[in-house]
Every structure is written in structure tokens, then in C-alpha cells.
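Continuing the batch. This is chain 6 of the set; chains 1 through 5 are on the previous pages. Same settings as before, nothing changed between runs. Recording input and output for traceability.
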Amino acid sequence: MTRITFDLGNKLWELGDHVTAAQTHRESLTMNTAYSKVLSRYEEAQEWSEFMAFIDTLNERRDVWDAYFDELDSDMLSFAADTTGRWDIIERFFLIAIDIGSKQKAYDLLFLLREEFARTLELTRGTVDEKTVIDTRVAALESLKAHPSNTLPQARIYAMTDLLAQIYLGKAFQPNIPRRKSRH
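Output for chain 6:
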């Protein structure tokens, strides 16, 4: 039934009925299906409101989709959120995914999710939520310290550490930040 519903959505899309196709794709989520191909179609057609409605439905059906939450692309998520102004849906998506990873004690996956969330936030065309980016990366590194990994590529860990160091260095040289007084 899942495959039939999913295929019906694809056929409706091909026939040009994007609204009904998108509704049918969302309905297929109740039956547990992969969704990265659906979102690629929405991206190609620049149907960003349908893209965000699909992510919002994923958020509502989190009990079904947890096996697939690592399939999304930061560039696509950021662009869709910027285009629709619906960053709340993307943030909720990542918070749900991180919660699922925490409950499953999937520490390597948590690191990767947090890395992807921070990257997605940084890709905005608007103002970057630097505090959330920093807090997310710090949480990823702290979790890794508490639960060391033998499987995560060291290059990814070093890259995140380097990104945080660059942010902190940039803050150190900002002229508008009040300096602490030395105690002598």
C-alpha cells in the first residue's frame, strides 16, 4: 500500500498536479516510506511551500520516519527555509531527530546530526543564529567526549573544532565586545 500511494503521488506529479501529488506523498508517510526522492522532485520544481509542508508532516509523523532522518541535504533545507520563511519547521526537524538519536543512544549519529544542523543554520541567506550554531557544535563535541567514537572520521571532528576556533577567534577581535578588566 505504501508503494502504491507513493507511486500515485509520483504519477500525479508527472501529470502536473503538484498540489495533489504533494498531499499524496505526505499521506504515504503514514505508511513508512523513504522520502529523499520526493524532496528532490519538489526542489527541481522549486515547490518550496510543498517541500516545507512535507518536512512539517515528517515532524508530525516522527514515530514513522526515524529510520530516514539522515537523508536530507543542508543546502536544500536551508534554501527551502529561506524561501518560505519557515525556519521553525527545520529547527523542529533537527530537534526531533536529535531527540530520537539521544533516546537510541546513537552517539555517532548525534554528532553528525548536530554537525548538519549547525551547517544548515550557517547556510541561511539571512542573519546566522550564531549562538545556536556554537551551542550545537559544543554539544556535539561534548557528547563525543563523553562517548568516544572509533568510527567517526577524525577529519570531521577536527573540522568542527576548527570551525569553533575560528568563531571564537573572530569574536576575540570584534571591537564592540567589552573587555574584561584584569585583576592585578
